[in-house]
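New here. Invent one.

***
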Amino acid sequence: MGEGGSEGADRTREASASEHQASWEEHARWWIDGFTDGADPEYEEQILPLAASELAGARRILDVGCGDGQITRMAAALDGVEAAVGVDPTWNQISVAARRGAATGFLRAGADSLPFADASFDAVVACLVFEHVDALDEAIGEVARVLVPRGRFCLFLNHPLLQTPGSGWIDDQVLDPPEQYWRIGPYLPDAESVEEVEPGVWIRFLHRPLSRYVNTLAAHRLFVERMVEPAPPAGFLALAPEYLDAATVPRLLYLRTSLRPSR
């Protein structure tokens, strides 16, 4: 899910933005098979329920970086929703979203160039997307543009502090007694890493400190109303029971922001 590792140093290499997009096209099936349609405990037990709660009461919802559209479909089923639309730049994701349907529609578009009129939505959601977006300022500006005043932006991130590149569990057998602890990689510098998330699947992540996100949001009149740092859900913890303190290290950071009206 995140930038951080699990048991050892991440395997990384350099890649251009165009290679990054090509990689998502090539490995779309890895994401779809491993993280959608009930396959991933973090989505099923934590992300989808939190998103449903935070989007409750919205009427027109945009899902930025929708992938196969699982959050879009969930949003479309909420009470009172008139339209739920998903956008994603990856054809091999958006085509699956369109086939799975159960939403207002899906369009191929990047976060930094949303094909909608100003003030089209009263809620925008982006889940584990902005870690892959180069044009952060432009993308957040686009979110603000398509929101109505006082509309909400629901932003899910790999935790910027605790899931930095190079983070991961250390099982230190040198100490007496041995210790397990979570190592945190460099936090303050912006950083790019390309991680081998499973054999042969390389995915590019862009790390930014939390202040970079919060200040960019504020520059576009999006102000934080709520922050959640949930413990990993039981289904995820069960996958690695040997890490006893895993429940104390959040993988996810959620921010709900609201668009302040311009004067």
